[in-house]
Amino acid sequence: MIRIYSISVLAAGILYLLAGLRPESSDAGFDLDGFARLPVVADGRIKPMDTVARTHLLTLQGRQRFKTEAPTEIKRTPTEWLLDVFYRAELADDYRHFEIVHPGVLDVLGLTPEDGDGKKRFSYNQMADHLEELDRQATMAQGIEAPARDVFQRAVLQTRNRIIAYQQLKHSLVVPDGRNFLSQLQQLQDELPAGVEAVRARSSDADHDDALANRMIDAGQAFMQLDQYAAMLPLPPLGEDKSDLAWQKTGRALLGAFQTGMVNPYALTYAAMGQAWRDQDAETFNKLVELYSAQLQGDFGDRLRKTSIEATFNQAEPFYRSSVLYVVAFLMAIISWLVWTRPLQKYGAQLVALAWVATTIGIAIRMWLEGRPPVTNLYSSALFVGWGAVGLCLILERIYRNGIGTTAGGLIGFGTLLIAHHLSLQGDTLEMMRAVLDSNFWLATHVIIITIGYSATFLAGFLALIYVVRGVFTKSLDKATADALSRMVYGIVCFATLFSLVGTILGGIWADQSWGRFWGWDPKENGALLIVIWNAIVLHARWGGIARTRGIMALAVFGNIVTSWSWFGTNMLGVGLHSYGFMDAAFWSLVAFVLSQLVLIAVAYVPAAKWRSADRLARG
Amino acid sequence: MSDLIAAFSRFFCSLRLTVVLLVMSMVLIFVATLAQVQLGVYGVQEQYFRTFFVLARIPNTEIPLPVFPGGYLIGGFLMINLVAAHVHRFQFTWKKAGIQLTHFGLIVLLVGELVSGLLQEDYSLKLEEGQTRNYSESFRRNEVVIIDQTDADFDDVTAIPESLIAAANPIQHAKLPFRVIVRGYYPNANLAMLNQLPAGAETANLAPNPSTAGMGPRLGLFPAPLTYKDNERNLPVALIELEGAEGSLGIWLVSPMLVQPQTFDYAGRTWSVGFRFEREYKPFSLTLLELKHDVYVGTQIPKNFSSRVRLQSADGTEDRESLIYMNQPLRHQGFTFYQYQMDSANGFSVLQVVHNPGRALPYIACILMSIGLTWQFGFHLLRFTRRRNNSAA
């Protein structure tokens, strides 16, 4: 019977994961999925429209969907939202998708929370009258060195950067002023040689068709505006050079028409898609997407395949879905301490394993997309710390079969994915590596080993937490489990010492190879060293008999604080070679985490007789 | 007496001391990391790690008080603790071999860090495209130079380190027909042309400038606080009086900011006087042939910096080209040249030049410690699984 239940739990988990593979659909019959897969060059790499949409939605408003509450009630999938920004700016300018919470920034913009959707999201049009003042404030803030900026200054800059990003996006494909860009381009194509002649004639005061010259100049100005404001390079090259470097901005490509006498056909295609979207003509739109995709198959087939896989990966949301499974597994494991022990332990372990496999696939796809080892920035380190720790939990669960590995795995797996989600709000997570860090060899050795060191130190800390919480607050901690936990923590600390030490020294060797010093007392290096020393302290305290089981557990919990400092705290200082992961918002979360750990250390020192599990621990 | 020795040996061998020292080192490292925001990496190294005590000044005075043991003290005690414990308890068994190897590796690592701290030298080498140089310049140290330029083919340089200038004692050198007297010294200062000061500029901050010769009389001298920032350096100013047999030749204001040589004639020879970044001459030269600064497509994110250089030895035994880029330095005769900074718009590249005799030690330490720990924990794991299997069976 248990077997049938167990298979059903597993099957439900798999179905839930696979449900993400359903393509994005539209009520009006638009081939949104096809558009989402189209490749563009942005932030230094080829990516699908889908990633552009999701990254912008996340940075603007912290969510991958756009919807507003009643009375306006608008709902848009990422691609629909992107199409509106591209082609129906007059609608998008009214979308309340800029999240602004700092009261000072709202004052600058002349807004109150009540004006916002959900009291915090505002539209471009709501801010339009105050952009000059915002820009003045941002320019002042920019004059101050980044680490010295206060919360208001950071918020002002963030808001301004979001508006810039939105403006850039609007200018990617067509001029966003509601004109019929397609017909303008078509007319230009027909009039081109004569038009250029007319402009030439006008400048030399010769006879010319004035209206024609004006149309040319108007087009030229529009293209220049597109070139100036856009950031994305959506158009594949027409010439011999088919490399990523040759992709073009729409404005730049269209300006070329005045030399070549031919309007860029890809720009024309995108304009035509735009007109179809404006007319809500699904049939034409779909046809154009299909034709354009087929056209790309020739020279850019490999690009299209790659962006297509990335779009599928985005839509499947493997990390989000895994985090849900981790939570379910964690709850099962907790309940298993109290009732229905064996079966729940088993189902929980299955779900953790399933979620771990899904994150493994997710990480592997990211590696393939990027052509890099798994850890390249703070976001991917969060994924990998979780992956490593949960992997160790699976091994522990296999050895001990007592639900502890599942509990810790569910908790750490969910926690790290939550952290990763918050880190993803800062932009494209598959960002390019800055020159200093551009070394796959060292990324694959130093960074991976040190990250596994973080994983293991956290795991030891979380196992210790389980010991403390179960012992003090429940009656479920018996002698056998306590001993098992004690052995687990010791084993994991040994493992953590090995990896954090070797990883740290390898980091020194990388520094020596690349920058000419083995050790520079850089904050991140110091952070790594603190982890090594802390693990060494735990081991020496145990060997010297200075700390017994409870002491070791308290020390291991403190390891969580040390590791979180090394992982995030050091990045908040904003100095040193490693400050690639600079961030502000997480500061208070870190403080809260540290405090919670200190409280739990204090809890560990509740007199042994007062522990709810005291009897069972004594009985043995 | 032997009781005392026993007590000492118990103290220095104890694991308790190890733990206490490790905790103290964590506190030191943590506080030093926070201090970097103010002091910069270099300031922190000097004031926290390469010192026996961390000093704090009594408020409103210049009196330093030791407030915490510094890196040398904690590291030294750790070293004594480590060596003493091993000498005292050493006993070779396979079971303990891993631990012993790890600790031996740690000793090598600490010694290596000490050697680097004492002997490593860092210089920078700034080259414009096409330029050739056979010397590099110190990142922090400066020197006053008095150069006999009479001979068109070579300069005869007498260099005085900044530390001697700071000490302000009169200097008499066999090669110089005059004495050098320091009339003023500012470890960091700004200069401005007096006639170009904006109207109504704050002149209250002007320091006295008694200079009488060269550029000096036309300059305003503004002392500045010492900077510890990693991207700034202190630019000192000195007021140098030269005194020949017949009396003073004048007072010159010198600073690394003044790149034009200040020349004068004395005793039938032509001299120049200046303050410059301390130079280290090498028996070979580098020429910058080409520099490259690549960015990712459509962005300003740097992808790669590279400098193609030509290396020529003075004795003509070596003449080759080499490409220096990120993570790929050039090594030659114990010196390592790293790509450090680049300004492709202005066509120059800065290389960092490092000489460190203790360079190999961390590598050896890493190997020893990795083997040691793997051995130790592998041993434990093996025993653990064997015991489990036995109990399962």
TrEMBL record, chain A:
It comes from the Bacteria. The keyword Transmembrane applies. Coiled coil: none annotated. It comes from Synoicihabitans lomoniglobus. This is Cytochrome c biogenesis protein CcsA. One of its GO terms (biological process) is cytochrome complex assembly. The chain crosses the membrane at residues 323-340, 347-369, 375-396, 403-423, 443-468, 489-511, 527-545, 552-573, 585-606. GO terms for molecular function: heme binding. Its main location: membrane. The keyword Membrane applies. One of its GO terms (cellular component) is plasma membrane. Keywords: Cytochrome c-type biogenesis, Membrane, Transmembrane, Transmembrane helix. It is a multi-pass membrane protein.
TrEMBL record, chain B:
Keywords: Cytochrome c-type biogenesis, Membrane, Transmembrane, Transmembrane helix. Pfam families: ResB. It comes from the Bacteria. Residues 262-342 form the ResB-like domain. It is found in: Membrane. The chain crosses the membrane at residues 20-43, 63-85, 97-119, 360-382. GO terms for biological process: cytochrome complex assembly. GO terms for cellular component: membrane. Its main location: membrane. It is a multi-pass membrane protein. This is Cytochrome c biogenesis protein ResB. It comes from Synoicihabitans lomoniglobus.
